[in-house]
Amino acid sequence: MKSHMNNTIPDSLADLLDIRGITTSKLNTVCRELEVGNLRQLSTAAAMEQLENVPALSPEDRKNIKRYLKVDKDADQRILLWDALLQGREILRALRTLPEVEKASLAGSLRRGKDTIGDVDIVVQVKGRDYKKLLYKIERMPFSERIITAGRNRICVVLHNQLLAFIYLADEQHFGAALWYYTGSKSYNALIEHMAADKGYRIDPLGLYDRKTNKYLATKTEEDIFNYLEMDFIPPELREEQYVIDKAIAHKLPPLVTFDQLKGDMQLHSDWSDGEGSIEHMARYIFNVFPHYQYIVITDHASANRTGHVLEPGSIYLQAAEINRVNDILGFDYVKKGVEVDILENGELSLPDELLQGFDWVIASVHSQFARDNTSRLLKACENPYVHCIGHPSGRIIGSRNPYPVNWDLVFDLAAATSTAMEINARPNRLDLNDSLIRKAITAGVKLVINTDAHNLTQLDFIQLGVWMARKGGCSNTDILNTLNWKEIEKFKNRKLSSIKKDHR
Ligand code: DGT
Ligand code: CA
Ligand code: ZN
C-alpha cells in the first residue's frame, strides 16, 4: 500500500495512487498543471484529453488513469450481458479456488441483469488481510491481462477483451454492505441512503451505522440491511427505481418468476428452416438436458412468399409427419407443431389462415421495414384469430438496430383484449421485449412467453437470460404463459378464438 499520508493530495484523489505507476509526485504534478483539486475536475480534464498536456505522465499512465476514471473513449464500450456473464462466472470460479476467498459474488450491472454491461464488478469475502499475496495470485490468473490498480479494498483488472473487472475485497463483517453497495444501481443506492438517513442510519460499503452514536449495526449479509430498514429483500434485478422501494416497504413485492417454473420453450428453429439440428436430435437433447420441460414448440420460419431457409407450404404436412414420428419415439406429444410467420408490409401474414389453423402455436414477427412505425402491422397481427404470439416485438438488435417506433399503449391494450401473447426473446443481442416494455406489457394485462429462439443446441441456455429480463420487468409466474401446462395453453388459445368470434357477431 502506498502512503496516502501526503497531504498535498486531495482526499478524493488519494485512490488514484493505487494505479500502477502513479506516484505521489506525478499526481501532484497533474493537480498543479491541470489545476484540478477533486475527482470530478480530474475526470472532466481527462475526458477532454488534457492528460496529454502533462509530460510527467507516460502514455501507459494516461491510459490507466483514463480507464480508471472510466473516461477512455476508445476502451469504454458496453458489452452484451451474456458475454459479460460468461466472463464474470469464469472469474468467480477462478477466485473461489483461492484459499483466501471465502465467498465471491457478482455485483454491479452484471448482478442486476442490465442488457449491456460497462464493466464487471465482483465482491469477494477474504480471510485475513494479506492482500499482497492475493494480488500476486490474481495477477497470474488466466482471466487477467494486466492490473491497473491494486489497493487494500479493490483491485482493477483488464481482461483479455479489454473489459475492466473491479474486484472489491471485504471481510466477513462487511461483506453484505459491500455487496449491497457495489450492486447498485447508483440512483437506487442514493434513494436507500436517503431513506436510511431518515431512519437515523448511515449506510456505505462498510456497513450500516447509527448516525448519532456511530455504532456499527449491520451487516454481514444484505438481508441484515433490508431487515434494519424494515423492508422486503429487493432482488438485485429490481434495484433501479423508486416504485420497487415503495413496494418493498409496504411488503408488497411480488415473487419473481424462476427458471424452474418454465414448462417449455416455445420458439425453436430446426433444419426444416434456418436451424442447425434435426427435430429428433433437438427433441431428444432438450428432453434430457431440460428435464422439467413438458413440451417444446418447433417454430420454423414458413412463408408462401419467399424461399430459402423457410418451410414452404408444400412441406408443412411432411414436417408434421416427422413431428408425429418423434413424438411416437418419446411416447407422448412432447413436440408441438408451431410456426413463425412474417408480418408482411400491410400487416398480413406470410401464410394464409387456412394453413395457420393447422398449427398448435403461431408466432408472427416483423422481419422487414425496421425503420418505419410498425404499430399498424402489429395491431393487424394481433387481430388474426390464429396468431398466438408476437415474436421479438420491438425488433431491436442491441448495438446495431434501434427498436422501430410503435405505439405500445395501443398494441398492448389490443394484445390483452385479444389474448395475444408477446414474446420475451432471450437471444443475447435481442432481449426483446426489454425490461421496461415488459413492465408496461404486464401492467396492461398482456401475457408473455419466454423463448430462446434457438437455432442450435448451445443457444438453449439463453433461456436464463430471458428469465432474467422477465424478472427485471417485474414478472411473476402468472405473467408468463410458458409456466402453464399445455392444456392451459390451449385454454389461452381458445380465449382468443372466442373473443374474436364475439366481436364478429
Ligand atoms: P456499468 O458498469 O456501467 O454497467 O454499471 P454499474 O451499475 O455496474 O456501475 P459501476 O460499475 O460504475 O458501479 C458499480 C456499483 O457501485 C454501482 O451500481 C453502484 C456503486 N457505486 C459506484 N459509484 C457510486 C457512487 O458514486 N455512489 C453510490 N451511492 N454508489 C456508487
Ligand atoms: Ca459495473
Ligand atoms: Zn424471427
UniProtKB/TrEMBL annotation:
The keyword Transferase applies. Residues 4-240 form the DNA-directed DNA polymerase X domain. SUPFAM superfamilies: Nucleotidyltransferase (SSF81301), PHP domain-like (SSF89550). GO terms for biological process: DNA repair. Pfam families: DNA_pol_B_thumb. CDD domains: PHP_PolX. This is DNA polymerase (Family 10). The lineage of its organism: Bacteria, Pseudomonadati, Bacteroidota, Chitinophagia, Chitinophagales.
